[in-house]
Amino acid sequence: MKNISIEIKWAVLFSIMTLLWMVLEKLCGLHGKYIDYHLYLTNLFAIPAIWFMVLALRDKKKNFYAGQMSYKQGLISGIILSAFIALLSPITQWVISYIITPEYFPNVIKRSVEIGYYKTTAEAEANFNYKNYAINSTIFAFIFGVVTTAIAMIFIRTKNTK
């Protein structure tokens, strides 16, 4: 358990950061009045997401590997971290969907039909619902985490000076 305690810590921190981001989106009106901008502005979440992954990998390098971490060690750590974030994603999405912003799905369903993105409410409801978001966020969290790790470790790894 000690081997993965840093990954568990950062997965929990990542989930908390995600919840805070959703509160910020809601407070800015992106789940209501300004929902038309949500599709674009929610992508800014990539900035803190990447930052948290880098901080987690640097933490692992400094506090577990004593400052000497190979690309492979970092990649394994990032994969484990991504898996934990993915495992927490359905719970995080549930808190977002039912506690932080329960009005998001009705608002986005209504608006997507109004602008013709979907022809019927039923089509929109099939896409905008907790189950679909929980599945997609789980898959996306894992894939995005692994890709971010693969790139970040190019810069974080300990370079051989031989």
TrEMBL record:
<feature type="transmembrane region" description="Helical">
    <location>
        <begin position="133"/>
        <end position="156"/>
    </location>
</feature>
<keyword id="KW-1133">Transmembrane helix</keyword>
<feature type="transmembrane region" description="Helical">
    <location>
        <begin position="38"/>
        <end position="57"/>
    </location>
</feature>
<feature type="transmembrane region" description="Helical">
    <location>
        <begin position="12"/>
        <end position="32"/>
    </location>
</feature>
<keyword id="KW-0472">Membrane</keyword>
<feature type="transmembrane region" description="Helical">
    <location>
        <begin position="78"/>
        <end position="100"/>
    </location>
</feature>
<keyword id="KW-0812">Transmembrane</keyword>
<protein>
    <submittedName>
        <fullName>DUF4199 domain-containing protein</fullName>
    </submittedName>
</protein>
<dbReference type="InterPro" id="IPR025250">
    <property type="entry name" value="DUF4199"/>
</dbReference>
<dbReference type="Pfam" id="PF13858">
    <property type="entry name" value="DUF4199"/>
</dbReference>
